[in-house]
Amino acid sequence: MNWLDSCKDILRNADGQTLPPKFKLPVLPTAITEFAKRSNDPEVTSGQLARILEADSGLTADILQLVNSSANGLRSTVSSVKQAISLLGFKKVQLFVLTVGAKRAMSRCDSKLINLTHFWSTNLERALLAREVAGLLRVDKEMAFAGAMLQDFLLPALTSELLDDYGTFVDGQSGKGKMLVDFEQQRFGWNHAKATAHVAWRWNFPDEIVCAIYHHHRGVSILLERDFAQTTVAAVAISSLLPDALSQTPGGLNSLIELQDHWPQFDLGQIAERISLGFYEMGGHQTYHMTLAKRLERMQARAKSTC
User: Which domains does the chain have, with CATH numbers?
Assistant: First the structure.
């Protein structure tokens, strides 16, 4: 059994403890639900998929904005979703649509612990890091990017539903701190990685995305596992080490810095510079988000001041 089949088998045989009891599952927009279902059909045509997406005017506008962005350098403006699919490729449109769908589903969540603007900025930077790591591993960059964007998409809903519990975790992080998934497993009997993967699986997201979400808190140790070391799962797991508002992985940034000593191609300084450029080009929230490059600069400044 390969790693994708193993992950599907785990989710298929889940005992019901991958989601909190009575949890109200966020709802995907109708067009995206239908698109996710039909896109797994090998017989479906780009024209059929385009008609599904065009039923949602907002989604159509998002796709056309993507294909007509300066990054694609087109000589003429694309005006139809079918043409956009042809130019961008089915997989890139598929991953973009699913990411937009997850963001829309979470936009209705009123979490007092998570500011959604900052949340998606963090996810964007993680996605850019995952794409860099995927390039070094020579695996699918677009799949790694989408997996990293989606790795925590259920957290706004979970923290809204279970505010007191997650508040206890945040308060405890001021001390030594612990992994969020360990806290969740001890307190609830499930964790958000399993829960999010389960939802993504039910929503017909690509198997590789589901598996990346399921294993995204494995950190650098995943590079030592034969089944995952050369996969997008590893790229997403490395990206999860970037700091976030909940401090899910204490010491994550130090783990990234230490990784350079064992992986010469992983030059975190250069990677951070490229990520910053991509972050600003893709509209990351610049005012309050502390980018990886800024974090490294501050660490270097503190190191110099103590010399």
Answer: 25-108 (no CATH), 110-301 (1.10.3210.10)
